[in-house]
Amino acid sequence: KAGSETVSVPVFKDGSAALEAEYVFELGNVDDLKVTDPTFDEILSIIRACYIGVEVASSPVRAINDMGPLAVVSDFGNNYGLIYGKKIEDFSAQLLGKTDVSTYIDGQLAGAARARSWPDGPLSAVAFLIGNLRKRGFAIPVGIKVSSGALTGVHD
Q: Could you tell me the pTM of the whole model?
């Protein structure tokens, strides 16, 4: 978890390293959902908190991002860590579609975006993950942090 302090994150030496600005959702009791394909309202009902965060992507394969999305998806190690910062106190689904997110690297703007609303926005990532895990019989622990997918792009 990050606040105003500097956070060090290890990456693969001589591999690839990138970061992605993301929303991070903390889930409550997913067992309360009785379906495998949750609706928008059902997803909202189990989100305990939302944070602004960063996914750290790193792989021993230096050129993985040049190989395309199938290579990235195949290399689970490319999702190497998660940094989550300040909790969004007045979180709502409407807020996600109204919030601009910017990524700066060494003081330079690397990417900027506004999250899309349902059904193609960050909450869709949560719905997909829950549905996929439940269909496969995996437990989803209370308090797990789920990242939403890159908002401003993947930045090496």
A: 0.84
